[in-house]
Amino acid sequence: MIHTPKRTGLLSFLLPSGRQKPLLNGIDLTLTLIILILTSLIGEIFALLGFSDPNTVTILILGVLLISVVTSHREYGLFASVASVAIYSYFFAEPRFSFKVVGLNSAVTLTVTFLSAFLTSSFAAKIKERLYAASRTAYRTNVLLETNQLLQKESDRSGLLRLTAAQLNKLLRRDTLCCEPGEHGLLPPVVFRESTDPDLPRGPSPDTLEERAAARRAFLGNCRTGPTTEILSGVSFLYLPVSGSESYGVIGIRLGAEPPDAFETNLIQSILWQCILALDQESLSRKRREEEARVRTEQLRSALLRSISHDLRTPLTSISGNAALLLGQSGPLPPDRQKQLCQDIYDDAVWLIQLIENLLSITRMEGGDIRLHMEGELLEEVVTEALRHVSRDARDHVIQVASQEDFLMARMDSRLILQVIINLVNNAVKYTPKGSHIWISWKRQGDFAAVEISDDGPGILPQHRDKIFEMFYTADSPSGDSRRGMGLGLALCRSIIQAHGGDISLKDRKPHGCIFTFTLPIEEVHLHDESTHSDRRR
User: Fold this and answer.
1) DSSP 50-68
2) Do both 529 and 384 map to the same domain?
3) Do residues 408 and 342 both lie within one domain?
4) pLDDT digits (tens, 9 = 90+) for 368-407
5) Can you name the residues that pair with 182 across neighbouring β-strands?
6) For the sheet containing 247-254, what is the strand order?
7) 307 lies in a domain?
8) 320 φ/ψ angles, rounded to the nearest 5 degrees
């Protein structure tokens, strides 16, 4: 965050504060009198020690220089120049303790003393003003740079408005506020007072009807309102609309009796423009994300419609055709033929049910509407239960279950993990020829349990591996049946495993085939709980 620089030591005298002090103030008067008294005492000591007059004049000029440096107005240097001449004339010039000038030499000495003191004070004041101007320029550059960096780090619209108001409070040391738009107009103001100058009066609350009306007018009219303007100038805050490609809100700055100077005005304008640019960029990014989401949703909808129209036609046609054949026969069909038709109808109906289940599950997972019921489950039991529900075509394959861990428990929602294993096994059955081998195994990998489902089929081509887990993506395979899948099974598996805090991946199996691996967090079990866990069944 940006902090207003604190001036300590000699720097506090060299650089005046941002708000000019009144001409007559106690601090400057006290400093002037103390320095004049001290230089007079030092001059008196020099006179007692027998030093020459030039030494005394030098001390008096040094006092004038010091007064010009430590006071806030150059008038004090001019006053010190006159006072130094008067002090020298009264206390040190002959005749002493009188203002009488005797001879040309004394007149020249007094004139040279006055000119030297006046020129010294003038040069000191100019150097101080130039130093202050240079420091203000450097400080402004630093402030704008740091504010720009902070605005770039913030990506939330509300955060950008509040950050801008907070930075202006720290820079100006005045109360600031921001009002964000809501459904029914501007929301209540958020006020920042942490860095407000304690010497400034607080003034009325920004929640009054007058202040709220001025803020609303600035927002709706896209114009400045409040002090220094012609619109509702009686309020205490100057309201600035924050408007770029759209209206983002209002920034308010309490002015009180003292309006901002030119430097502060430029600083406010620069920071406000930085805020508007950051808000425009945030708005553009948000609209781009919304457009991308809309296009992605439209693509998913189109893909879903294409998949439904294409993939449901074949099983539905088969079901209706086989049913029509059964209904249209005038005589009884041979038992084997009748059984085959019923089996085909059943297989197509089961495939449709599984398709609908996957579609509903992936919709719930993507929408975040599904809740996990996490419990410790024995992997061997989950795999055994899943194999009871795999496709009937699995009978034409050799499925083997082998584990490196006799007793391994993982934390999971068993209902969803069953669906993952069923989808992966059915996927292996579908895309491998009859008689192929399918292996299911699991082992411990650190804090996770890794489950592998591999096969010795033709494998998956490299160009398909990066997209195999995407929704509606399908890889053509000559080993598949006549029903091309909708590409939901593997996408659903990935969503379920990621929701469990695990990961799913695909790699080649040598010499041919592929290996799907997913991980689940390990469930640590105490010995006295083993009997309880072993009795769990789904």
Assistant:
1) T--HHHHHHHHHHHHHHHH
2) yes
3) no
4) 656 788 899 999 999 999 998 888 788 899 999 988 777 8
5) 185
6) 190-192, 176-179, 247-254, 237-243
7) no
8) -65, -40
